[in-house]
Write a structure and sequence with these properties.
By secondary structure, this protein is α+β, with helices and mostly antiparallel strands. It has two helices and six strands; from the N terminus they run αββαββββ. The chain is globular.
C-alpha cells in the first residue's frame, strides 16, 4: 500500500517498522512545511500520523481505510525536526478498528496524539 502512496513519498515519509496492528514512520520537516508562525503546519503532522495509521490498519491484509480521525497538537515542530509517528492498534471489531498514533521528536518530546478509526472494505 505504502509503495503506491504518492503523497507520503512526496514528503519523504519512510516506513521504519511494520508489524501486525502497528507501524512506525519518519518524516523530516522541510522549509516547504513551515506555516506563517515559522512552525510545521499541522496538516503535515496529521499526514505523517495518518500514514502510520494506514500502515498499521492495513497490516492485517484486507484493504482498510480511515472512517475518521482526530489529532491533538501538544508541542510545535520546526524546520529540520525529524518526526517519528508510532501507530498501535487498540481494538478491532467486525470490520472496524481503533488506532492510536503518537508523533515524537527524537528526544522523545510528544508533538501530537492522533486517534484513527478504520473500516475494512469488502
Amino acid at each position: 500500500m505504502l509503495d503506491a502512496d504518492r503523497a507520503s513519498a512526496a514528503l519523504g515519509i519512510e516506513l521504519l517498522e511494520l508489524g501486525e496492528g502497528r507501524a512506525a514512520c519518519r518524516m523530516t520537516v522541510t522549509v516547504h512545511m513551515i506555516n506563517g508562525h515559522d512552525l510545521c503546519h499541522g496538516g503535515y503532522v496529521f499526514l505523517l500520523a495518518d500514514t502510520a495509521f494506514a500502515c498499521a490498519c492495513n497490516s492485517h491484509g484486507p484493504v482498510t481505510v480511515a472512517a475518521g480521525a482526530e489529532i491533538t497538537f501538544v508541542s510545535p515542530a520546526r524546520e529540520g525536526d525529524v518526526l517519528v509517528a508510532e501507530a498501535a492498534e487498540r481494538t478491532r471489531y467486525g470490520r472496524s478498528g481503533i488506532y492510536d498514533v503518537t508523533v515524537r521528536k527524537p528526544d522523545g518530546q510528544v508533538v501530537a496524539e492522533f486517534r484513527g478509526r478504520s473500516r475494512e472494505l469488502r
